[in-house]
Amino acid sequence: MDMPTTKPDITKLRVNGQRLWDSLMELAQIGATEKGGVCRLTLTDLDKQGRDLVTRWAREAGMTVTIDKIGNVFMRRAGRSNMPPIMTGSHIDTQPTGGKFDGNYGVLAGIEVVRTLNDHGIETEAPIEVAFWTNEEGSRFVPVMMGSGVFAKAFTLEHAYAATDTEGKTVKGELERIGYIGDQEPGDHPIGAYFETHIEQGPVLEDHDKTIGVVTGVLGIRWYDCVVTGMEAHAGPTPMALRKDALQVATKLMQEVVACAHRHPPHGRGTVGMVQVHPNSRNVIPGSVKFSIDLRNATDALCEAMDADIRAVAAKLSQESGLPIEITPVSAYTAQPFHADCIAAVQKAADTLGYSNMRAVSGAGHDAVYMARLAPAGMIFIPCKDGISHNEIEDAKPEHIEAGCNVLLQAMLERAG
Amino acid sequence: MDMPTTKPDITKLRVNGQRLWDSLMELAQIGATEKGGVCRLTLTDLDKQGRDLVTRWAREAGMTVTIDKIGNVFMRRAGRSNMPPIMTGSHIDTQPTGGKFDGNYGVLAGIEVVRTLNDHGIETEAPIEVAFWTNEEGSRFVPVMMGSGVFAKAFTLEHAYAATDTEGKTVKGELERIGYIGDQEPGDHPIGAYFETHIEQGPVLEDHDKTIGVVTGVLGIRWYDCVVTGMEAHAGPTPMALRKDALQVATKLMQEVVACAHRHPPHGRGTVGMVQVHPNSRNVIPGSVKFSIDLRNATDALCEAMDADIRAVAAKLSQESGLPIEITPVSAYTAQPFHADCIAAVQKAADTLGYSNMRAVSGAGHDAVYMARLAPAGMIFIPCKDGISHNEIEDAKPEHIEAGCNVLLQAMLERAG
Questions:
Q1: How far, in Å, CA of B15 to CA of B202, rounded?
Q2: Residue B149 falls within a domain, yes or no?
Q3: What pLDDT, in 10s, does the model give residues A311-342?
Q4: Nearest chain B Cα to A201, which residue?
Q5: How many domains does chain B have?
Q6: Within this chain, do residues B203 and B234 fall inside the same structural domain, yes or no?
Q7: By CA distance, what is A291's nearest residue in B?
């Protein structure tokens, strides 16, 4: 490689936004839907085409490609030293009615960083790696964030291999079929630091008119099922005072799920998304109501506090009404704060580049959550239109796409030296 | 008929409770279910068997039987005069998982009144008639209360004839098949007064430990569908302040449906029985919620006031939340107060007989509602166990069955002279 003799001012480096946009649009052709979205489910033929295209681009940029046993792909640009690489990445699988940016942006932003370094003949101390992780979306096989989860030993390779889709096909069989089952032992791959760029998947940046979200962490999640048991009875002959109306008690608790989030600001979130009323008949007082509770907050301690809060409220409502209320945990994901150094690197890059920015949290899971268990990690958000993702109308502005990639470049260079 | 020479003290007359109970149990054998209930859907072979048995009993009691074109059956005990008859009745069709008493009690109590008059050789001035009305339950053919509805010209004979069951069989065809399509023009049958005994189908009498409910009227009903439209979004990335959570607004309105009933005492009733959440996914903020509203009260003016109340609350909630709320009327049934003279006759009979009693309203529809449009009408309620009806475990106590029939006897005799 032809190196410059004087140290360049890396703060003046900028990525090629048009090239990045063009790559995003080209990748989005694989599995393109009529409504302008992408359907490229993990480990399908289309996923193989996507993987082939991205790894071809990586090789064309002089990167070496390795694959691990769960199909995670690592594309490496050598550094001066053999230090653990500064890594970025995300995923290229999509939801069945997914968009062009979710995941894909994080991977292609990494490729664009490497192309930019190549353009300017910049060598880094640590190697630069771009990864894409298998089956982040979880819409064909569960669990979600499968590749990064196996990599971080959140669950075993065997567990992931055994997962089946609705047709009974396994992850292992499909990996073999598309030729993306590698030799590397998942996790047997040191990481110096990890950054991930992603569309926000929420409305906060757009609402605040900011270009960059400096992500401080990913919210912890607690999922529950709740059942209120009353007594079904005819709506006509049963006077109000003699009713055991399960829905009336349930709706009070549904209100409290939201109130509980407000009692734990600024990041507390409470959602009832699913409701089943029994017998669900117009003139019958509901005998039982089952509904979901989704509580989220920035730390596990706050999630725990929300858990205690909603249980106390439920106990009080049960006592007042005389109706049993049962709350059953369904699943829990720990909160994952990002590393102070990585947050600072993203913040500094955004400030230096002059992009309007704000601190943000991620309410959704990302591969970066698992990477944060293994190495210092951070994320960069850019706005997405109306906060909509997992939808064919998912959209982001070219200038935001470019800005996020510039922040990634600066943050990675700061860490890579 | 061998008449006594002195006028008997009719207030001393009592029905034969055991005979009435035995008849109820015998009729309940036709369509008996394993769980102790009855499945005798209208215009089936089992209904024909039930009709044959009851009319045989009527003929054995010296009554003449006539049938109208919608299959309503009138069993007449002649009076001294040809005045319009004092009529009682109800129905003998049941729900698919019905009980032994709903409807059947009202018909067999009438038969027992006649048997008692026969036992004591008592002649009345007005004739006594016992009717059973076709398809009160409405579980095989709609509309409900079909026979009495056609009789009262609430809808046409043609409309009723054309109703089909799930197999496509028509009311007219089934009436012909079981041989219960008569010559009389429905409604072409004067009535002097109408009484109906019925299990309460609610918990009020049991709760107050009263034997007799002196029914003052039947509640009017207003049915609505309500749709709250928000914006579906991911439960994770969307902070509380930026949500348009349709369920949170809907649950406030569901609470108000009950509050509205309490604001219109003592007979106001408000029920949300049916709820559909869209997309009904655990981690998606609901984008829209559709639910039913059932409002009832003792007069149409009160129903109208509740209608205005809930619409005003919905408008306020919509304004506060910024979410559209649409309330669409589905159907309405007018309130039907009973005739003061009939209420007084039932009250006097219960008092004279020394039965504990209270004023009551009916929250459910009965054939008496349509008869009240044609003649002075009243109803007598007796308690049913736990307020449960339309269920195989429906139960009533023999002493209450007997008491209600004694009240019916006295009230009819007062009106029949």
A1: 25
A2: yes
A3: 999 999 999 999 999 999 988 989 999 999 99
A4: B237
A5: 2
A6: no
A7: B282
